[in-house]
Design goal:
Strand order of the largest sheet: 2-9-8-7-6-3-4-5
Distance between the termini: 44 Å
Helix content: 25-40%
Strand content: 15-25%
Number of strands: 15
Structural class: alpha/beta
Low-confidence stretches: none
Length: 405
């Protein structure tokens, strides 16, 4: 029998968050080594628990999850999602414009499959959560990376966006709040991106999974609320705001003129129908979660875990010579920059591997987020602040005298 070969489309697919270095860390753990895994944003791994509101919803309604539900999602869940997004200013949408999926990961794939033919281009930020770039490739498209500028609070560079639009460009992706930088986009930058989409007749995908985890009194604005005249697909879910990663509960909302997006919506229906329905148990949690504003608010206000862990991270990073950073305004990630000349860094994956084996700390290098330089890495700020403080002090000690061979 001939060797079974991988499909060519897999050649450029990578998942560094749970990639080769992650498996090295797992092998270390098997040998009894205590590894601090700062690679993935999984609150449950760091002691965040299920909110009581979710527990009560499941206890009282679990029997409703026995059968297949509506291919778009349970009506009660979609009505709750509808109310939530209307409260954020997205107009002229109905429950039929909402599709619930098994996490945002699934709805991203569905949204791209329904749009892309082979060779079509999608504008994707760099740095970005690699789900987007990988999914574009798997759907036959080409991710074209536009720069988010560290010198401008990691905002998208609109001139760079415009310079990369071609007759093959079908959509632009924004991740707001951003992963991996924790940046929160201003209304001004969102209006500029909307105008670019309007002028060039391209769809906007807006990944807003961290919109309820905003710090320092800032507020999140949905781009769809600023541009009711253009098609926008807004993605959101419960994984982060209510610590329900394992529930795989996400959704998308298609807004804008229906006469423009009607054909696209019909393709989404076909895809949703093929997979029958999303996980019904997780959908039971949606109305309760979206009514429970206190859980996410309690984490990001002063004294809350995410706020305090962000504060200690910023404080300790500022003490490390050769490391700089932009303090995040949302989410629980920070994307520090290392002085490559000082440490002779030419390979960010080697830097992450050296750090793992020297300190037992696992991070993701910037290249894992489609960052083209070797000078950044992402830290997940979910461990208790005492753990983070110790880890960052070990990082500082590691860098003291570090030179990459």
């Amino acid at each position: 029998m001939k060797e079974i070969l991988s499909a060519k489309k897999m050649d450029n697919i990578h998942s560094d968050i749970r990639g080769p270095l992650f498996y090295e860390a797992l092998e270390m753990q098997k040998r009894g080594i205590d590894v601090l895994k700062l690679n993935t944003g999984n609150p449950a791994s760091f002691g965040f628990t299920m909110p009581e509101s979710i527990q009560n919803a499941l206890k009282d309604q679990i029997h409703l999850a026995l059968g297949y539900c509506d291919l778009r999602g349970m009506p009660e869940a979609r009505e709750a999602i509808l109310s939530y997004h209307k409260s954020k200013g997205i107009c002229d949408i109905t429950a039929d414009d909402i599709y619930i999926g098994n996490g945002v990961s699934e709805v991203v794939t569905m949204a791209l499959q329904a749009l892309l033919d082979d060779g079509d281009e999608v504008l994707v930020p760099t740095p970005c959560y690699s789900l987007w770039s990988n999914s574009v490739r798997l759907c036959g498209g080409k991710p074209v990376f536009y720069v988010c500028d560290e010198k401008s609070d990691w905002y998208p560079d609109c001139k760079d966006i415009e310079s990369k639009i071609t007759d093959k460009t079908k959509a632009i992706v924004i991740i707001n709040p951003n992963n991996p930088t924790g940046s929160l986009y201003s209304e001004d930058i969102l209006l500029k991106i909307a105008e670019i989409a309007r002028k060039n007749n391209i769809l906007v995908f807006s990944d807003e999974i961290y919109d309820r985890l905003v710090l320092d009194g800032f507020s999140h604005t949905s781009i769809a609320s600023l541009a009711p005249d253009i098609p926008v697909v807004t993605m959101n879910g419960l994984s982060k705001s209510h610590c329900l990663c394992g529930f795989r509960c996400g959704w998308m909302v298609i807004s804008g003129p229906k006469k423009i997006s009607e054909g696209y919506g019909q393709s989404i229906i076909k895809l949703a129908s093929m997979r029958l329905c999303a996980n019904a148990i997780s959908q039971i949690a949606i109305p309760a979660a979206l009514n429970d504003k206190e859980t996410p608010a309690s984490m990001v206000r002063a004294g809350g875990r995410i706020f305090e862990q962000r504060e200690v991270t910023a404080s300790e990073l500022s003490k490390i010579d050769g490391v700089s950073f932009i303090k995040n305004k949302a989410a629980f990630y920070i994307f520090p920059k290392i002085d490559c000349k000082r440490f002779n860094v030419t390979d960010d994956k080697k830097f992450a591997r050296d750090l793992l084996h020297e300190t037992n700390i696992l991070i993701v290098p910037g290249s894992g987020f489609e960052w083209r330089e070797v000078d950044h890495f992402r830290i997940v700020m979910l461990p208790q602040k005492e753990v983070l403080k110790s880890a960052l002090q070990r990082l500082g000690a590691f860098l003291d005298g570090y030179k990459q061979n």
